[in-house]
Amino acid sequence: MGGLLAAFAAGGVISHGSMVGFLTVFGIAARNGILLINHYQHLEQEEGEPFGPELVLRGSRERLAPILMTALATGLALVPLVISGEIPGAEIEYPMALVILGGLATSTLLNLFLVPTLYLRTRKT
């Protein structure tokens, strides 16, 4: 969602570069969500943590740094492309960087707040 908002804020053009950005954000967000849920399951199955809010809070705290580092490292690498703007030769990189930065912001928030909540509500005990 953040990638879409960023693309429309920058002019509303969805280009090939933007599409690559959407795929990149999808991959990063899916990876972070899968690793977060996998960590919850590891805590329960391997470490004997009983299912409940404490398990999800512990798992989220333990995965917070890796999730934030993935987003920050990727985002910081893209800042120069966004700052340089639409200069000649960056017709693909600029829209891609915008979409990735916008998407990383929302996907990181969703992974940190929505995924734990959904895991608590939908997991079968």
Give a brief rundown of this model.
The protein is an all-alpha fold. The protein has 4 helices and no strands.
Please name the defining characteristics of this protein.
single chain; 125 residues; mainly alpha; 4 helices; 80% helix; elongated
Describe it for me?
The protein is mostly helical and 125 residues long. It contains four helices and no strands. The two termini are 32 Å apart. The relative contact order is 0.22. The mean pLDDT is 91.
List the helices and strands and how they pair.
Elements: H1 2-9, H2 16-45, H3 53-84, H4 93-122
Rg calc: 17 Å
- First CA to last CA: what distance? 32 Å
Give me the strand/helix succession. Answer: HHHH
Structural class determined from secondary elements: mainly alpha
Number of helices in the DSSP assignment: 4
User: Which regions are unreliable across 5 or more consecutive residues at pLDDT < 50?
Assistant: none
On the 0 to 100 scale, the average pLDDT is: 91
Strand fraction band? under 5%
Percent helix range:
over 70%
- Biggest β-sheet, characterized? none
Number of E-state strands: 0
Shape designation: elongated
